Amino acid sequence: MNPFSIAIHGGAGTLLKGQMTPEKEANYKKTLQKALDVGYEALKSGKSATHAVTTAVQVLEDSPLFNAGKGSVFTADGTHEMDAAIMEGKNRQAGAVSLVSGIKNPIKLARDVMEKSEHVFLAGTGAMNFAKSLGYSLEEAAYFYDALRYQQWQELKGTTDFQLDHSKSKESKFGTVGAVACDQNGNLAAGTSTGGMTNKNWGRIGDTAIIGAGNYANNTTCAVSCTGSGEFFIRGVAAYDVSCLMEYKGLSLAEAADEVVHTRLLKIGGDGGLIAVDAEGNVALPFNTEGMYRGMRTSAGKNSIAIYGD
């Protein structure tokens, strides 16, 4: 049996000890552990890496604590536009959706694009029509309402400014969620989901839904899910860059992930982090910000949840 493992993230950014109340910090850790455990139990029971990352990400999407699914931020129009992507490493199949509204679990819709369509990436009205063709029911806007998210929007409403959650040094909720896994057969998968940026305009799309930028999986190298300043992850093709460094330079998972996060992204002004796993079950969780909501659990007995850069 191949060693198996899973890692998750709930966003990276200005996370400093003392910013959150002990109760809120405990809630974050509890939800992260729940997502980690759901994914790990799936792997332990012999289910695929794709299934594990889907179920783990859904737990995070269902929580108002993270900027994905239920906790998605408000756009300039006061709506919610969500993005998600999933990829499996065996045959490099992938699915992604962008600019979707009312979808409780965008990661599930992304998986349906991968498994039930001939396409990789659907957006906007087309993605919504695809969801309806599969019988998806849409949540009312009230499902996605959160008082803190609404207040964040009010601070920017009517301006051309926008806000990445991780860019402000104050107590607030942080962005994108994701999961990567290696199953008992050595197959890899990565899934990522986000609500985007507060007060975003013009149908802005970040790195999350872009295969190779915010999400990537290849059994010969690694599976990667990114979080941070999306425009820079797109420019650096960050997720694929980790894979390339392993494939073409022979770097280990940890070396490749560190090179991308601590050198290549910083050179172009990008901040954030990523989670990655290889086919031997090794895990890497680098970030160049003060903190990153993160967790990992392996068949070797490792189980950790962390927030800060310690």
Description of the structure:
It is a single chain. The protein has 310 residues and is of the alpha+beta class. The chain has helices spanning 22-44, 49-61, 106-116, 124-133, 147-154, 230-235, 238-249, 253-267; strands spanning 5-13, 82-88, 93-100, 121-123, 177-182, 188-194, 215-217, 222-228, 272-278, 283-284, 291-298, 303-308. It has one domain (5-308): Glutamine Phosphoribosylpyrophosphate, subunit 1, domain 1. Helices cover 32% and strands 24% of the residues. Strands 4-3-2-6-5-1-11-12 form an eight-stranded mixed sheet. A four-stranded antiparallel sheet has the order 7-8-9-10. A hairpin with a 5-residue loop joins strand 5 and strand 6. It is globular.
Describe the largest sheet.
8 strands, mixed
Strand % is 15-25%
Q: Got a strand count?
A: 12
Uncertain runs: 166-174
Given this structure, which CATH class is correct? Alpha Beta
- Helicity, as a percent range: 25-40%
Series of secondary-structure elements, N-terminal to C-terminal = EHHEEHEHHEEEEHHHEEEE
Please tell me what the overall shape is. Answer: globular
CATH-defined topology: Glutamine Phosphoribosylpyrophosphate, subunit 1, domain 1
- Under CATH, the homologous superfamily reads (Glycosyl)asparaginase
Features:
310 residues; alpha+beta; Glutamine Phosphoribosylpyrophosphate, subunit 1, domain 1; eight-stranded mixed sheet; 8 helices; 32% helix
Brief account:
With 310 residues, this protein is an alpha+beta fold. It has helices at 22-44, 49-61, 106-116, 124-133, 147-154, 230-235, 238-249, 253-267; strands at residues 5-13, 82-88, 93-100, 121-123, 177-182, 188-194, 215-217, 222-228, 272-278, 283-284, 291-298, 303-308.
